[in-house]
Design goal:
This protein is of the alpha/beta class. The protein contains 16 helices and 18 strands. The chain folds into 4 domains: 35 residues, no CATH class; 221 residues, Aspartate Aminotransferase, domain 2; 59 residues; 78 residues, Alpha-Beta Complex (Ornithine Decarboxylase, Chain A, domain 4). It has a 7-stranded mixed beta sheet, with helices on both faces. Strands 12-14-13 form a 3-stranded antiparallel beta sheet. It has a two-stranded antiparallel sheet with strand order 4-5. Strand 13 and strand 14 form a beta hairpin.
Length: 456
Amino acid sequence: MQHIQREYASLHIPGHQQGRVGWEAFLSFLDRGLLLDLTELPGLDDFHNARGCIARSQRLAAVAYGSDACLYSVNGSTACVMAAVKAVVRPGGAVLLAGPFHQSAWRGLVWSGARACLGRTGYSADCQLALPPTADEVAAWLDAGEAVQAVFLTSPVYQGLAADVAAIARVVHARGLPLIVDEAHGAHFGLVPELPQHSVAAGADVVIHSVHKTLPGLTQTAWVHVQGPRVDSERLRAALLFLHSTSPSYLLLASLDAARAWREAEGPDSARQTLARLAAFDLLPAEGGGDFRIDPLRQWLPTGDRAASLRLAEELAARGLFPEYADGQGVLSVFGLGVAERTLARYRDAVARWRAEFRPRSDTPESGLWQALARAHPVLDVAPAEAEAAGCEWVSIAAAVGRLAQRMVIPYPPGVPLILPGQRIEPEHCDLLAAVWRSGYDVQGVTDDGEIAVIC
């Protein structure tokens, strides 16, 4: 902002010249924000060799969470996850993927040349979701499986269920291993005691936050925290920068700085007020029990029936409300910090009307297949990097039975892989894929003609 006040004319990139050049119908939407879209100028630091204002901002973010260091990402939490895996594992080493994980974790395995050990957790038919792991499950996987170099945990899962990260960290550290936590959906954790504790405070070695998901950051903003002696912060920084443009967006960097400042100055009060509003409308979820906590800002309504989910989404859309996603398992809505009372009133009315017509189900064919797949323990016949490099052919879903997948197959959202590269495709995979694909659901890795890639 100080630079903007000094600059009379732009003699540098970008080409829109701080909003002076471009299509007016577009520029008018961005307005003064374009002034912040700058480049590496004197006083504005260098993202790839941060020593000035960017470095100071990252230190403030580290202090805010209590980590040893915080590194910014303007390439989303995807880049943070990939960099974290690359930083902690050597080629040929293995990572325990404890429970459900985002596709970015697999990309990190491919990039690092690591192998995957899959720890599959329980499935709640009532909640229609795969559960996060418990500390006992992680301990059992580590003791019974092959030696790994790190443990990767996703908490909270997309639907808002958070693991007991502190207990899992103790189990992992007792074996001398680092714990990476993909806490993309939990950047607001720890603002008040009613929210789950964030994973830096819980003792994880690396913690990734998608700032734009629950804090007021622009889309594609994220940061990664590192603490303790088990992870080389410089190796992590180098891996993260490898995934970034040499012309990073200063608008996004400014957004990260502003989100951090807001979190400290206004975040706790906003969290308290938001939780009070949710309580007033009877929208606070019941706690998940001793092993799990629930993010109260996430409202997950399990249906077990895609038609019922889409019907609820229609009820919400009729009131100008659009949920995060609706699929064959349920409907997820995310109430941001500062959600208005009138929004909650509309949401409650829509759900009440929907519930008068529909009841959640756990006996549909699609629901049963999700449960079976969640309980399965897939075996990877080919390592991630080998599968990525292998030749492939595209075959129909039915013809893929018994073949090895060459690409991920991912119902999106929520982005959790259903089939992994190098995994042998079973009949139940094909049954579910065919049902989901015919329903019109967006499945990454399946063509418009219903074909998937297998290793040839």
